[in-house]
Specification:
The protein is α+β, with helices and mostly antiparallel strands. Helix content is about 35%, strand content about 10%. The chain binds iron/sulfur cluster (2 copies).
């Protein structure tokens, strides 16, 4: 004799997962505070990023470089505006180039130096309110992409 142990047959494996498996806590969720877009840190841009950003903004690469970029330490970086925020930061709409933002911006806070060093992760938590303080370091690194 077989029984179903009182369980209703799930309509699909995906539904079963959704109903019975608890999702892990998110180790990072950006709250758009803009903290990481402030300061003279220097967001470096690579050649292919310059091409993509220029295309996204509908301007030439030359115009992008002269209006929004500068050379720093022998590399090209995004300028800082008079308010000390990145030139592409808008207080209402946030990053004006979000779909094509440079690698350091899309990678943050999962920088190699942070996912490989617990102390750096502790410091990053103080700097970025989007890093979930209830998550462990192990949970954080397991969610690095
Ligand atoms: S500091 Fe963190 S939470 Fe704030 S905008 Fe940057 S990534 Fe998002
Ligand atoms: S490019 Fe966008 S995400 Fe990166 S610092 Fe500037 S405004 Fe912030």
């Amino acid at each position: 004799m077989t029984g179903n142990l009182g369980l209703n047959k799930p309509s699909s494996p995906a539904k079963f997962m959704k109903d019975h498996i608890i999702s892990p806590m998110k180790a990072f969720q950006c709250c758009m505070c803009g903290e990481c877009c402030y300061g003279e840190g220097g967001i470096f841009v690579e050649k292919d990023e310059i091409r993509k950003i220029a295309h996204f903004l509908g301007i030439t690469q030359k115009a992008l470089l002269s209006r929004f970029c500068e050379e720093k330490y022998g590399r090209i970086s995004v300028k800082t505006g008079p308010d000390k925020f990145c030139i592409f930061f808008d207080k209402i709409t946030h990053c004006l180039i979000h779909p094509v933002k440079p690698k350091p911006c899309s990678l943050w806070p999962f920088y190699p130096a942070i996912v490989s060093d617990r102390e750096n992760w502790e410091m990053a938590k103080d700097a970025c309110p989007g890093i979930n303080k209830d998550c462990t370091f192990e949970e954080f690194i397991s969610q690095a992409h």
